[in-house]
Amino acid sequence: MSLILILLTLVSGIYWVLAWWTVRSFFHSRRDDPVDYTPPVSILKPVKGLDPEMYENFVSFCRQDYPEYEILFGVMEPDDPAVPLIRQLQEAFPERPIRLILAPPLGTNNKASILHALAKEARHPILVASDSDMRVRPDYLRRVVAPLADPQVGLVTCLLRGAEARSPGAVMEALELGANFLPPALMGLHVFKMSYAFGASIALRREDLERMGGFAAVADYLADDYQTGARIGALGRRVVLSDYLMDNVLGDMPLDEVWDRHVRWLRCARVSRPREYIPMAITFTVPLALLTLLWLGLSTAGWLLLAESLLVRVWSAWQIAGYTDDREVRRNLLWLPVSDLLHAAYWAMALVGRRVVWRGQVFEVDREGRLVPEHSRPLLNG
Predict the structure, then answer these.
(1) pLDDT tens-digit readout, 321-365
(2) How far is the C-alpha of 36 from the C-alpha of 369, rounded, in Å?
(3) Which DSSP state fits 179?
(4) Short-list 197, 201, 191, 183, CA closest to 272
(5) How far apart are CA 348 and CA 350, in angstroms?
(6) CATH number of the CATH domain containing 298
(7) Number of other CB atoms surrounding residue 144 within 10 Å
(8) Which of 147, 191, 204, 339 has its CA 20 to 30 Å from the CA of residue 287?
């Protein structure tokens, strides 16, 4: 058993060196996409409640360096607290076509239900869906639409990094996104050519969306973004990862919300990609090293292995954050071992059970990844 733990810890350290190399290679080989490919775009923004610095997030989408685009906001309730912000946005940017759509109920995932209503109302052939807690720079639309100039590309998605973390929970979330979530996700899409997408940003053609059955086809799934990518890939189209990184504005996110969010994501991953779930444990370098230290009775060899694991983990995270310009990870790097322990705890908690929590509402995920609500009100965000 001691040898197995030592080998697993060493392999885990090697994994993070490979992750660093993959991230380095990806950002060193930037795509040479035609930035002059600028077809008219409809931005789809599903909204529920208030996010940190929400108005500033919305404003960033109104300041795109792009010739022709509209923004459609969708809500399920006419008195949603985000509605006044959207009205304020319409007044502040009268030159920008901004519409507010009241979406009818469709499936158990309200985010996908709203996206379905927005896509029906959209006027342009290219659709770009993005979560409400994202902030972008003026070149965002040009960067994510450009790969669609290739007719074989069916969907372009983006990874995300934490921004504006102002609480312990938000710091843990920023480290989780930048140091634990991003590298494996990038390896999956870039190296293994998997076909899945991230709700932070999805760009696709209307015709391909309609061929896969529209957002209505994924309106009962927890991971509507994953399902969208998989279904576009099943059409024979390529799913491309952009080198553009979205900023997820975190604000004062509490730790219990971080816990619920990642247990939910990982339970969904376990259901959607069961063969990949157990092997995820190879990424737990620090927890494996601590377990090995305890198994070896706090021996000198165990302490040396822990020191080596911490060195590799911190070094790789620092280097990766440099390529992704992730200031939150670099600023809070000393807390990375705590984040790694939490990451292993999320995984262990999600290993059993099908219960997921979103904003105090309880659901179960069936074997196909569909949401089964325990209460009458459905889930917004997958």
Answers:
(1) 999 999 999 999 999 999 999 999 999 999 888 887 765 567 888
(2) 39
(3) I
(4) 197
(5) 5
(6) 3.90.550.10
(7) 25
(8) 191
Compute the distance between CA of residue 132 and CA of residue 206 in angstroms, rounded to an integer: 21
Tokens of 81: 């607290």
Domain with 111, as residue range(s), is 1-382
Cβ pair 219, 373 in contact under 8 A: no
Give the residue carrying structure tokens 């480290």.
175
Q: Which amino acid is residue 242, in one-letter code?
A: S
Residue with tokens 């350290």: 13
Cα Rg of the chain (Å, integer): 21
CB of 326 within 8 A of CB of 162?
A: yes
| pLDDT value at 283 more than 70 | yes
Number of domains in the chain: 1
DSSP per-residue string spanning 186-203: HIIIIIS-----BTTBEE
Record the tokens describing residue 348, joined without a space.
């262990």
Tokens in use for 380?
């917004």
95 CB burial (10 A radius; 0-12, 13-18, 19+): exposed
Q: What is the sign, positive or negative, of the torsion defined by CA atoms of 330, 177, 259, 342?
A: negative
Beta strands in 221-285 (DSSP E): 238-251
